[in-house]
Amino acid sequence: MSGQLTAFVYGTLMDPRVFFRVVQGNSDPPEVIRNLYTFTPAILHGYCRHRVRTADYPGIIPEEGRSVRGIYVTGLTDANIDKLDSFEGDEYERRTVKVKLLEQVGDDDAEGESLVEGEEKTADTYVFIYPDQIERGEWDFEHFRRERLRYWAREEFSFDDAVDEAV
């Protein structure tokens, strides 16, 4: 059964394989499980996504005038949120934020210029609480997908191993 909770994810969890490994324990669950969730591009204003020093994953911190693109996820249960809390660990604080859904207008292009802000939604997200451990550079999701995702999405590879490998 689908849950009523929502989240805004902006890092490794934007990849469905990582997301499903965390919340379902399987990077490729059956379609009936996948269909319990919806994934919509969204933007969070007033924050910036940075690389966490010596890690594959990012952290967001409040930063006026900046914004973070990510994914608004619906269908989460309390058990899913518990798993996300555990995955994010003590480096992050779960906070409720307001995001704007991104809607496609016209033809899609490589830069996402055809996306415009739409409806505002409330969601939980994870804010990095150790700003001295971040690098002042934007974390690159595409670089993560090309270079590091294989470590995070393999069924036989644990998240603890992925974190150890990243460090």
Automatic annotation (TrEMBL):
Keywords: Transferase. One of its GO terms (molecular function) is transferase activity. Transmembrane segments: none annotated. Residues 8-140 form the Gamma-glutamylcyclotransferase AIG2-like domain. The keyword Flavoprotein does not apply. The keyword Transferase applies. Signal peptide: none annotated. InterPro entries: AIG2-like (IPR045038), AIG2-like_dom (IPR009288), GGCT-like (IPR013024), GGCT-like_sf (IPR036568). Pfam families: GGACT (PF06094). PANTHER family: AIG2-LIKE PROTEIN D. Belongs to the gamma-glutamylcyclotransferase family. This is Putative gamma-glutamylcyclotransferase. It comes from Sodiomyces alkalinus (strain CBS 110278 / VKM F-3762 / F11) (Alkaliphilic filamentous fungus).
